[in-house]
Amino acid sequence: MPGPGIAAYLGIATFLFVTGAVGVLLRRSPLIVLLSLEIMLNGANLALIAFARHWGNGDGQIFAISVMAVAAAEVVVGLGLIVAMARKNLDLDVDDLSSLKG
Amino acid sequence: MIQTPHVDWFALSPSLALLGVAAIALLAAVLVPAGRRKAFSATVTFVGFVGAFVAAALVYGLSPDAATVISGSLARDRWGALAQIILAGAGALAVLTSYGEKTKEHVAEYYALLAAAGAGMLFLAQASNLMTIFLALEWFSLCLYVLCAIDIERKSRLEAGMKYLITGSFGSAFLLFGSALIYGATGTLRLDLIGRAIAERGLSDDPLIVTGLAMMLVGLAFKASLAPFHQWTPDVYQGSPTPIAGFMSAATKAVAFVLMIRVLQTSFQEDAHLWTVLLAVLSVASLVIGNLAALVQKDVKRILAYSSVSHAGFMLMAVAANNAIGGRAVLYYLIPYAAMSIGAFAVVAARERELGRDVSVEDLAGYGWERPVLGVGMWIFMLGFAGFPLTGGFIGKFYAFTAAYRHGWIWLVIVGAVATAVSLYYYLGIVRQLFLRSPVGAAGRPLEAGGSPPRDALLQIAVLACIAVTVGSFFGVQPLIDLARNAAGSLPF
Predict the structure, then answer these.
(1) In this predicted model, what pLDDT tens digit does every residue of B340-376 receive, in sequence order?
(2) Range of A37's domain?
(3) Residue A8, min C-alpha distance to chain B (Å)
(4) Measured between beta carbons, which residues in chain A are less than 8 angstroms from residue B152?
(5) What ipTM goes with this model?
(6) Structural domain tally of chain A?
(7) Is the Cβ pair A63, B234 closer than 8 Å?
(8) Cβ–Cβ gap A70/B135 under 8 Å
(9) Under 8 Å CB-to-CB from B485, ≥6 apart: which residues?
(10) Closest CA to B125 of B25, B205, B14, B47
């Protein structure tokens, strides 16, 4: 049974990626920014998996699995930093991270 | 029997050495008593970087012909090996400059992460497959995010770590999506096969390839802190531990450029008419923004950060020229540049440890007389950054200009020359503070005594080594250029 074409998958992947990018640029809470970064990576993952089916080779799927591992590691570091910031009673707002400037 | 790809362990040895060392240093965080933890982990990490240096030199010597290992995921060639030699040297110097840091907690983890970051960078220098590229990039980036924020009791460290994490991951996501599009257009992840597919199927104007290439370049521009993707650089350098800032400005930039050239030359020769122009524009932007922004900075680390942006512009000029001279120019340029960066940040680190706060330009007043070795070192590094003769910085810039000239871009050479002239103002401003100003604070009172703390012998050795490389790369230019020529010969320029 023919499913949607590669263009549809690529469209959704691009939409996810753009959503994530806009989220990183506009949202102020570091938690939401991390979430948006994950959405960007998942957009790329969807594209990789769709293309892997399209070409009939496994490279893209393996790539996507390792991206998931990397994304998890990234979240671990990000959440660790957020917890440390919360303990220091820093406001969880990226716009307030402005003591470094010049 | 299961068919497995042949693994060339020797080609992997530089990054494996550092990975092993990272594990040992991490175990030391638990097993070695607190009193000896720092000495143990620092020694092990230093030995690891020296070992990686030697292993990379052996790989360089024994790989006259470029080859790929493990199903084309890594390249065993002189291009990667010379880059690894530079990176391992930078890492060893970073260990020496780090030893005097005053933090008591997480010292073993610090060195473990430094070794792991070095291993990732060495891996990336060899990576020749979109997947290994992304994995290695994230491998060393994650280590650096943690290193920036390792001293979590200080707000500035946390802020630097968070900013670096967000911008770095943002850039990596662009690189990943670009990789996905290129995979979609060609059906392969291997750089050499991508190049062949583009040439054979005439894909050079395929929208997926063009978009994917642009997104990959944006991702790498974030890592190499090219304007306009440089905004994180000054904040992160200012907020992170100073030896780490020096390591980042030397090594991250080096590996990003080495990788950029490998990707562009191996896979995207057919699209050269697009990326040469794009990179030339980015180069001009980095030269202009880096130098103008550095003029108004007060904090020395921020000046060095913007200076690193402008040096990225000089190196990118050579990348954009798309010729073998450009490839040689980048590899040669990286040798004195890495030494000058680490050395300059080491001097700032020494002053910072004496004062216990961020170092502004005024804080260096008279420092050259107070600590002659560090002062003369900073003097040489600043002249080298500015591109004076008798330092490798001169030949590096000259070489980069030659590459752009050969490509027919005289206007780019003129922009570079003007940028160099502007940069004299802030580089010589630091030298003037070091030697021509008496050590008096803004309010007329003497600055906090700098002479009393004991000399940091390891840091001084690192600064002396950086001086030796900076000056030595001017006088020993021919052997280094031969090394770079052989290295560039392993890429299809």
Answers:
(1) 999 999 999 999 988 888 899 988 988 888 889 999 9
(2) 6-90
(3) 13
(4) 84, 88
(5) 0.94
(6) 1
(7) no
(8) yes
(9) B324, B328
(10) B14
